[in-house]
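Reopening this one. Same input as before:
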Amino acid sequence: MSAPAAQPRFEPFRLRGANFNLLVLRLLDARPEVIVPALGDQFRRAPGFLRFAPIVIGLDDLPMAPQDVDFARLVAELRAIEIMPIGTTGGSPEMKAVAQAAGLPPLRTAGKEQDLPQGNPAPVPAAPAPVVPEPAASEPPPPGGTRPTMVVDTSVRAGQRIWAQGADLIVTGTVNAGAEVIADGNLHVYGALRGRAIAGGADNTDARVFALNFDPELVSIAGYYAVREGLADAPIGKPVQVRLIGESMRFDKLG
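Same output, byte for byte:
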């Protein structure tokens, strides 16, 4: 009698490392009674911004001693307003240890997606960013300096997020309220821009945002941002180019 055929091995999971579009909340003050109301105010001015977003807590700018930071309370109150802190970046070894004891492990930047040997822990990705949360660091442009471009030929619906990693982004339709478009390079919207527009990932302060009908919930370049109520000087509803001059955002009419 012949031996039974070997059964195919069942593989219940695979571990992979990847570079994710994470946001960094760089703390200048770690007191929950200061941070949480300020974030709640941002929610009221830009509905949906950061809601259920996984974020990394940036510790480099905290002036407080590690023992003075109540990370457990901070995590609980952030989750109560539907923000999901998953770890930390930066900070002293003592600050990292206090944060880790509250369930916020130190994270590091990951490279391209790759298979990991079974049994080894997967690296946890993070992306340092300036003042405002922003997309993770992008791939460098190819030899010759030409930046690739992602083209979206449809409108972007509420709830959608499109990210052109390491590239410029062109949207030929409308970016509706509640949608988010992100480009590590320049961002072009050839319809109405009514959602959230983020350009200049990886500290690219030369990036620009172009829109034929400018009426965004939020616009950001290299971490500097403005929400709708802060755009009183911008030509709302007009063709606009947005760029940074130093640390100030400038809104110029196109044409």
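So the earlier flakiness isn't reproducible anymore. For the record, The domain at 20-111 is CATH 3.30.70.260 (Alpha-Beta Plaits).
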